[in-house]
Design goal:
Elements: E1 6-9, H1 16-19, H2 30-36, E2 44-49, E3 52-60, E4 70-76, H3 82-100, E5 109-114, H4 122-137, E6 140-151, E7 165-168, H5 172-183, H6 189-196, H7 201-212, E8 224-227, E9 234-242, E10 247-254, H8 263-277, E11 283-288, H9 292-300, E12 304-314
Parallel strand pairs: 4-5
Antiparallel strand pairs: 1-2, 2-3, 3-4, 5-12, 6-11, 6-12, 7-8, 8-9, 9-10
Helix pairs in contact: 3-4, 5-7
């Protein structure tokens, strides 16, 4: 059924319109990503029959010259019968992966943005489950499902209560000293995966910091530490920022000794306020579906769940899946 299928990468940015014959929520980012080096034509692959796009796949990185950090496009023509779509997807995934990723390396994480009700819509569920089953055939496994959240201007932001005072983060060490205890006992699946890999809480915090924070395009003066006004003891922190695509609450945490007192609401309000006062048209955030306390805090702050995110990972040979 795939004998006449042509599987190849884009010849160059001039073929982007062909790649866009299928659709996904990140389509609008592709042109800029190609222009800035966050994507490369040789990382965007297509399955074609007689010039018709039947499938596509693409990897992403966070900087020009970087290695692939995520597989975030994997689409099949919705008009294909399920069996044929599976064959096209299987061949596309195998051919493109072998060409893009060095032999023997662990593939980067797969991320997929979905409607909040994706399981309740049979057509959507069937298409998503087909993609996920093809990934599973290659050794991928589910890591986490996340809530993608959005705050819009006009949504009220709670005012300060006086229970906390806020100061800017002084430097890398200042923030890492707070991130490390938050990493202990974290409910975040990615953080737990880092700890299961054998990293110490400090090492996991350093990885999180170094992999993400240097790439933000916004002032570090926005980053805040929350303290008790009478003693100056640190209670938590929030990282309002802007990445290459959106204003975000990049990271937020309450130190273990201060949990259970409702401080998360005031810390989240401070981060949201900073971005709102900077005139941002929206604020995005995400939290694991299973992190019920954090999801509830975002809901109280007026953040709406506009999408879900499903993450799949491949384990290194011999790695524990605990």
């Amino acid at each position: 059924m795939t004998d006449d299928l042509v599987v190849r990468p884009l010849a160059g940015p001039e073929e982007l319109d062909l790649f866009l014959d299928l659709s996904y929520t990140l389509d609008h980012e592709l042109a800029d990503d190609l222009g800035t080096g966050r994507r490369r034509p040789e990382w965007l692959w297509m399955a074609l029959r007689d010039g018709r796009l039947l499938g596509r796949i693409a990897w992403w990185t966070n900087k020009d010259g970087g290695a692939p950090l995520a597989l975030d496009f994997f689409d099949l023509d919705p008009d294909l019968p399920a069996g044929e779509a599976a064959e096209v997807g299987r061949r596309l995934l195998a051919t493109a992966t072998a060409a893009v990723l060095p032999a023997g390396t662990v593939p980067p994480e797969f991320n997929r943005y979905l409607p909040p009700d994706w399981r309740e819509v049979p057509e959507t569920r069937d298409r998503v489950e087909l993609l996920l089953s093809l990934l599973t055939e290659t050794g991928a496994r589910p890591l986490v499902e996340r809530l993608r959240l959005e705050w819009l201007p006009g949504t009220p932001v709670a005012g300060p209560t006086g229970r906390l005072v806020f100061r800017p983060v002084r430097d890398r060490e200042d923030l890492l000293a707070l991130m490390t205890p938050v990493m202990e006992g974290t409910l975040d699946a990615h953080g737990r995966a880092d700890l299961a890999e054998g990293l110490s809480p400090r090492e996991a915090a350093e990885r999180h910091y170094d992999d993400e924070f240097p790439h933000y395009t916004s002032p570090r003066e926005w980053w805040r530490v929350a303290e008790l006004p009478d003693t100056g003891e640190a209670v938590g922190f929030v990282i309002p920022a802007r990445n290459n695509y959106n204003p975000i609450i990049a990271y937020i945490g309450v130190l273990p000794a201060h949990r259970g007192h409702g401080y998360i609401d005031e810390i989240l309000a401070e981060g949201t306020r900073i971005l709102a006062e900077a005139g941002m048209p929206r604020v995005r955030a995400a939290t694991d579906l299973g992190n019920v306390p954090m999801a509830a805090a975002f809901a109280r702050a007026g953040y709406a769940n506009f999408q879900r995110q499903v993450d799949y990972v491949w384990d290194a040979p011999g790695a524990s899946r605990s």
